[in-house]
Specification:
alpha+beta, 18% strand
Length: 173
């Protein structure tokens, strides 16, 4: 095996792993949103307790997020959702390029989670003009923002990328 082949082989495996993660997360995200909207009809029900463990709880509640995280940059303009979708697609493209150079399986999985989450939310923006958010976390009277499976994948992926950047030891030459 030549040096060139050795350098390319791990990248291809990482790409497959990352793309599989992206596809899995995208499928879970879109299936959960379909269930929330079509089967459970959460918009009509408003708020359902899902899980309570001590002071920590999760509820199902319906929010149409027209902005980005925490509702930032939300707007009602006819092109607002298209502009946000274009930005998310551009970011996903950048992350796909990064995925081709992923040095570890953790980085490949993390990038796949972020890509899958970004694409899931882009689909919502183009389909509905807003992102379907439905999970509310709360504890000790404090509420976290309402999120979805795509958001959870993005956050977990970013945390994994940060952990990798901070904790991975450089390879010895």
């Amino acid at each position: 095996m030549s040096a060139t082949t050795a350098a390319v082989a791990p990248a291809r495996g990482g790409v497959r792993l990352g793309l599989a993660m992206a596809a899995l997360l995208l499928l879970a995200d879109q299936a959960s949103k379909w269930w929330i909207l079509e089967r459970l009809d959460l918009p009509a029900l408003r708020n359902l307790p899902l899980l309570q463990v001590g002071p920590f709880g999760l509820d199902l509640t319906m929010v149409w997020n027209r902005g980005v995280t925490f509702g930032l940059l939300s707007g009602e303009g006819p092109l607002n959702h298209v502009l946000l979708a274009v930005v998310a697609v551009a970011i996903a493209g950048f992350l796909l390029r990064w995925l081709w150079r992923a040095e570890t399986r953790l980085v490949a999985l993390a990038l796949g989670a972020v890509i899958g989450g970004a694409v899931g939310n882009v689909i919502d923006r183009l389909r509905f003009g807003a992102v379907v958010d439905f999970i509310r976390a709360h504890a000790w009277g404090w509420n976290w923002y309402v999120f979805n499976i795509a958001d959870a994948g993005i956050v977990c992926g970013v945390v994994a990328l940060l952990a990798d950047a901070l904790l991975r030891r450089p390879a010895r030459g």
